[in-house]
Amino acid sequence: xxxxxxxxxxxxQVPPEVLLRMAYPMVHHRAPxxxxxxxxxxxxxxxxxxxxxxxxxMASSGTGAMEGSVSNFLSPGDKVITVNGGKFGERWxxxxxxxGVNAIEIKVEWGESVDPAxxxxxxxxxxxxxxxxxxxxxxxxGVAHDVKAxxxxxxxxxxxxxxxxxxxxxxxxxxxxxxxxxxxxxTGSQKALMLPxxxxxxxxxxxAWKMNETARCSRFYFDFKKERENLxxxxxxxxxxxxxxxxxxxxxxxxxxEGLENIFARHKLLAAATREGIKGFGLELLPKSAPxxxxxAVKAPEGFDGxxxxxxxxxxxxxxxxxxxxxxxxxxxxxxxxGYCDKFDVIIAISGVEMVLKEMGYPGELGSGVRRVEEVxxxx
Length: 380
Fold this sequence. Notes:
Blueprint: E1 5-6, H1 16-22, H2 35-49, E2 55-59, H3 62-71, E3 79-84, H4 87-98, E4 102-107, H5 116-125, E5 131-135, E6 137-138, E7 143-144, H6 147-154, E8 161-165, H7 177-180, E9 184-188, E10 199-204, H8 206-212, H9 224-231, H10 242-258, H11 260-280, E11 284-285, E12 295-299, H12 306-317, E13 319-320, E14 322-323, E15 332-336, H13 343-359, H14 368-379
Parallel strand pairs: 1-13, 3-4, 3-5, 5-8, 8-9
Antiparallel strand pairs: 2-10, 6-7, 9-10, 11-12, 12-15, 14-15
């Protein structure tokens, strides 16, 4: 028997209590007893998003919220800035292209964070740019972008919205959309929200809703205006993912009990311990600066295949991490420490990496990484 450990950057582990809640008998989404659930969740999401604005709920992966954040606020021919510093930053450009929106792509070396001054320069040269689209946490590289600094820049442009993909950031580290000038903030259920995949969320402010009034891109299912109208009646435009919403109700209670400051501190500690454990075993991190507290991207040692490390972790020790994507495939592997994760998940991950690499011929000293992890935790 091999016990399974899910330490991938999505989907992440789901607490047993949440799984049990989702196993409750099915209810009808138009029945009177479902409305109070939606009302409670709506207020809970505002707390989690740290916003006064409505947070829309859709049955989709996070990409649905990404797509809706383009189609609901732009018109064909509009110009926007997208930051491509990884697989998901690249996705912003692909979505824009699908809707006839002209994306000015700022390419950032994968493993680097974007320089906000570069974005400022583009906006100064062309104030007609309608949007800036970026990740708070680029899942494919383990890098965090400085969305606070970017938001301060975009605030000065009343005709430009700032859209942040926080799919692996919300519930991991502090993001304050109302204070920082983030006009649309999105996330998904399968990351720090500790749920299975299937729900997407978008917090939208008045500046963005004003642009929605003149946006001419086609849309049907991801119609944010229609979703907001229904949300205010404690329902949804279409059939929601009922079991996931019931699970979300319980997740929000769990998160409130822990408190936002404690949630952010926990993720910061787990991330720091993971990075120290990796370095303690003689390995290098991919991020050159601004590593994300959601996921750690690790360079495979010279002569070792990162995909094989990832595969052997799963097949031999039951630890599901993640490999690299695109040109980083085989060059890195990634370990998640977000959501339903604690100190011993990190110890398991680092000890698994040590054993796999030792078996593959890597000369590192067994226990050297784990020792560093334990030292971080003991000092805390």
